[in-house]
Amino acid sequence: MRIDASGLHYRQLNQQIKAAVAEGETEFELVNVCGHRYLGSGIDQPVNIRVEGIPGNDLGAFMSGPRIRCSGNAQDGIGNTMDDGLVVIPGHAGDVMGYSMRGGCIYVRGNAGYRIGIHMKSYLDKEPVVIIGGRVRDFCGEYLAGGKLIVLGLDQPAGEPLVGKYCATGMHGGTMYVRGEVDPALLRPGVSATEIGDDDRQVLRDLLAPYCAEFSLPLDEIVGGLFVRITPHTARPYGQLYAY
User: Fold this and answer.
1) Which end of the chain has fewer CB atoms at under 10 Å, N or C?
2) Which pTM value belongs to this model?
């Protein structure tokens, strides 16, 4: 089903999509998208949505099952509390991506903004995965409670930090992998950053195989690079901060 978003309010566009899903439609092509919010949000069917243009905030929020593929960049709040499914961004992503995400995958080929993966968590048998091809800004992995957050640092200028300040603040679960060196000054107390071993490299290979297939990237070359694993020291980093 092809929908031209030109002149449509985001509510109208989402109403058309959800009405079509209720009638059994599984394939969508949205064209002339420009800042339309909440695309795919709340949908719990395994539909395919292709977005031509730049989607607005909360792309794929609260969704459980759809596969969304964009044509370029996307704005803030991608995958907010996402339960399952896939979001593919071949360009750059905005801030607060993967907030409270508890399942599914988000693949970004370019860079991402601030507070990526905050409050991300595993839920029941689900484990969310966020992979960024470039770099991230401050507060990445803030309060991370579960899942896998991977920063590849592809196509970055020499000397450019791959993570911003206050990385992994309050992290108490999950794992971050950064392909490259991480300045300890950018990390908050309570986490460790160590080079990966063979077991981690196999985990990365399994996670990165579909990502590299999406963007036609060399899997062996990427997995074979230097990776740092960031993990928390404790599941209760603030356990004695306010009460004893």
Assistant:
1) C
2) 0.95
